[in-house]
Design a protein that fits this description.
- The chain is of the alpha/beta class.
- It is built from eight helices and ten strands.
- Strands 1, 2, 3, 4, 8, 9 and 10 form a seven-stranded parallel β-sheet that branches.
- Strand 1, helix 1 and strand 2 form a beta-alpha-beta unit.
- The longest helix is centred in the middle third of the chain and has 19 residues.
- It is globular and about 40 Å long.
- The protein binds zinc ion (ZN).
- Zinc ion (ZN) binds next to strand 1.
Amino acid sequence: MADRLLLASIHDVSPRFESEVDRLLDLLRPLLGDRLAMLVVPNHWGDAPIVPGSPFAARLRGWADAGIDIFVHGYFHRDEKRHRRSADRLRARYLTASEGEFLGLSRVEAGRRIRNGRDLVEQVTGRPVAGFVAPAWLYGRGSTAALADCGVGIAEDHFHVWSPSRAGARLAAGPVITWASRCRPRLISSLAAAGLLRHAPWKVLRVGVHPPDCGSPALMRSIERTLRSALRSRRALRYSDLLEASA
Ligand SMILES: [Zn+2]
């Protein structure tokens, strides 16, 4: 049992979604303790900044002090750019409802946003961040290079967890279970996918939850069932434990 692992994360942690994040923590913490990750958006959509000294900043520091892994998750989260390549444009529009901020950024701009976000979050928490995860797990060539430039410890996409600061060393491979709440057909298919994937044979199973998940009781039940089912055969771990174990 000890061989198989579970990594869980709460996405889009921002003052904008404070009450939703609380509800997700209430669901996850009784099952996982503090062995989870929070993905923090420094300034969601440009109008929900995390302000040092604010009550939300104090809460963020408290979560970090408790031992939760804190990741930087984009800077604004929203994709402000028009992508030149039509394939990227399609991916950005249809896969993510235009939340793929880092898909079209240049190496320089991606590096600037990663550093700015990291500086802000580390100022607030008083400790190093665990890593960086791009919104919607979408990285372009520029942002992939910028992860290494910035010495990011841990990054992940839909299928992998890797360490840019260790020459891209792979830390885990396997799917991430996530739910879609935007429209009913996608919600139903994501419930079905979670039901199958929670039994997946991969060594590391990842679960990622989002603030809008709170809007659907069926979805919240699916998250709980998925975690309980996974924990029967898996040990919950922090992403940072994975990095230490691979050192
Ligand atoms: Zn996100």
